[in-house]
Amino acid sequence: MTEAAHEAGDDQLATTGHPVAITPGQAALSGLRHPLVGILLLIGLCSAISGKPLDGALMATVALLLAWDAARARQRYWSEDQTAHPTRTGPRRRPARLVAATAGVAAAAAYATIVGGFSRYSWPVTVGVVALGCLMVAIGWQGPVRSRPVLTGRPLRRVWLWALVLVAGGGWELSSLLQQPHLTTDSYAHPTISALSDPVLASHPGRTVFLGGWLALGWFLAGR
Amino acid sequence: MSSRELTIAGYLAVLAAGVVLQLATLRMPERLPSLGRVFTHVMRTRTGRVGVLVAWAWLGLHFFAK
Question: Measured between beta carbons, which residues in chain B are less than 8 angstroms from residue A33?
Fold first, then answer.
């Protein structure tokens, strides 16, 4: 069951004791109220006004799709079994997995080499990155690729340690960004990660390695 | 130490903290969650899953796309 469906169920059961239908307007509002939808819309707005309209349009599109999905889940949560996100594939045999992994690595290497051959911010690299990004989000939309054990107990209570590391990294990056002379002008004294990566991404091998790392991260995330 | 060196040291410190934490999870998996398990937890819902993958896609767009 999705978060929205859980929330919807809690709300409805709390007030009436049994599920009650809601209007499409209420459902739409509940979708738009989801925190991630607001965050994505904000990122989209900031990207658009900082000269990246494509980023902004894509973020806004995903935000609206998530809002629509949350609203739809709220409307129908009681009417069907939403055991949600069943895994789509059963366990594969080891040889099949090996072949798939080898083919995947070869495809990733070809992608990184070809796309990395184009200069940054050119149309070919933009099309390559946008297409793969959209494909991965579409795959993620369908649910987990494989089932994994649920985090419970003491490890679950220690998730804040990772949150601390991520917030510290984000905060440090943000402080560097805000110390630039202008949002679009790098600072030598307070470089952002983007500024530090510019020399690496200026060369074909650098872009290929960077794209390879980006693909590896995507593969890691898609398997969660 | 210059401001630039201090800034870079900050990034390296955060990276080192993440590496140390991940290594610690290998020694104490029953007490600490690995980064992979944290992402699995965050991505257990469609919203979390799509949100994380959009963040990943945004990285590619930020560094390469128009």
Answer: none
